[in-house]
Amino acid sequence: VETAVSERGNRFEGVVRRSLHDRPSLTDLSLSILSSLGMTVPGAQATDQLLSILSNCALLVVLEGVEAILNAGSLAGDYPATHQAYISFFQSVISTRSCVILTGIEGPNDLVFQGGYGGNQSVRSLTLSGLDTAAATHLLEAERLEAPEQWAELIARYQGHPLALKSAARVIREIFNGRVDAFLSLSSDIFYGIFRLLSPSFE
After folding, report:
1. Under DSSP, is residue 57 helix (H, G, I), strand (E, B) or coil?
2. What is the DSSP-derived secondary structure letter of residue 130?
3. 14 burial class (0-12, 13-18, 19+ CB within 10 angstroms)?
4. What pLDDT score was predicted for residue 93?
5. Are strands 99-103 and 14-19 parallel, antiparallel or unpaired?
6. What is the value of pTM for the model shown?
7. What is the pLDDT confidence band of residue 190, given thresholds at 50, 70 and 90?
8. Contact between 111 and 123 (Cβ < 8 Å)
9. Residue 141 clears pLDDT 80, i.e. is over it
10. Is the model's pLDDT at 61 over the cut of 80?
């Protein structure tokens, strides 16, 4: 997200960043964004006013954790009844001068099906893979781990996932005195804790 903002920031008149982790209604989100722009409107008019601003100004709106407003425990990408208003909102944003970036573990089906990977589409998807070896090695260096000759195996085992690597690094430091080789020789029992940490993502 930071890269997108830095590369494209000069195209926009303003940048707004909000989290969806608390599952705000569309009205609440609209009021929050308008408030950050110095505007106060009645709740019933908030979304229409926000769409008007997005049409007339070039804003970059970053909404983090979009999976929070989707149904949990069902086929991916569907909205619960309480958040259906987002469907028409996101579709309306597509034709404005502004840009909305959604981040999350999964995306809304209605947008994912429209999204391409590059080109001139109005809706685009970007799937992030794990860290490459150089970046993952830098992360492990910052964690002050020993036995660097074993780091490649550790990185491969966790597929470069930064959160999993940081969690493993903490265990390695605190239980294995920083020794990656000792961790790898006994880690089958420890993987369970990492999987518990990541299980909300899989759900």
Report:
1. coil
2. P
3. middle
4. 93
5. unpaired
6. 0.66
7. low
8. yes
9. yes
10. yes
Q: How far apart are CA 22 and CA 32, in angstroms?
A: 13
Q: Are 53 and 73 spatial neighbours (Cβ–Cβ below 8 Å)?
A: no
Q: What is the pLDDT of residues 111-134, one digit of tens each?
A: 877 766 555 578 887 777 788 999
CA neighbor of 162 nearest in space, from 142, 136, 144, 143: 136
| Structure tokens belonging to residue 99 | 């840009």
Tokens 């599952």 sit on residue: 23
Question: Considering Cα of 146, then 147, then 149, then 154, what sign does the dihedral take?
Answer: negative
Residue 104 tokens, joined: 């999350």
Q: Are 146 and 179 contacting, i.e. CB atoms less than 8 angstroms apart?
A: yes
Nearest alpha-carbon partner for 62 in 128, 17, 105, 107: 17
Residues 97 and 115: their CA atoms lie apart, in Å, by 18
**pLDDT at position 1, please?**
47
Residues 160 and 132 sit within 8 Å (Cβ to Cβ) = yes
State both tokens at 44: 């019933």
- Tokens for 199, please give them: 């299980």
